[in-house]
Amino acid sequence: MGSNKNLKEEGPYLFVRKKVNLVTTLFRIRWDDVMYVEWVKDYYKVCCCDGMVYVLHGTIGSFLERVSGKENFVRCHKSYVVNMDYVKSVVDGMTLMLYNDSELGIPLGRTYEDDFYLLTEIIK
After folding, report:
1. Nearby residues of 119 by Cβ (< 8 Å), 6 or more positions away
2. In the chain, how many domains are there?
3. Which of 67, 60, 120 has its CA nearest to residue 90?
4. Would 106 be classed as within a structural domain?
């Protein structure tokens, strides 16, 4: 399994180490609270349903290894993994809309479209 010193998985929780006001803090995040994860270069954002966003250094591969046993996490784009518990609809086969106080569009890439529909048992 790929290593990331800022992430630790334990049961239904993900522990994230982050510096806040020059103090290193360990945050406990429930996997169920993670709405989606977005990658930008060598960093990724873990976006939670409570509005918290944790920016971590790492690769998409190392994160995908961590969620490989969790059926509700699906890669839908080269830069996104979504938690299917928050998917409300697929609009024109292009965008995933997530539940929250406001709807958020997440792209559904053509490369991942067939696997997305297969894994989620959605009929195209």
Report:
1. 71, 74
2. 1
3. 120
4. yes
| CATH at 100 | 2.40.50.1020
Residues spanned by the domain of 38: 7-120
The per-residue pLDDT string of the chain (124 residues; one tens digit each, 9 = 90 and over) reads 444 555 555 568 888 877 778 888 888 899 899 999 999 888 889 999 888 888 888 888 888 888 877 778 889 999 999 998 888 888 887 777 777 666 788 999 999 988 888 877 766 6
Neighbours of 34 (CB within 10 A): 24
Q: 92 lies in a domain?
A: yes
Q: 1 in a domain, yes or no?
A: no
Predicted structure pTM score: 0.80
**Per-position DSSP letters for 65-110, written without gaps between them:** HHTTT-TTEEEEETTEEEEGGGEEEEETTTEEEE-SSS-EEEE--H
Q: HSE on the CB side for 114, CA within 13 Å? A: 1
Could you tell me if residue 115 is inside a domain?
Answer: yes
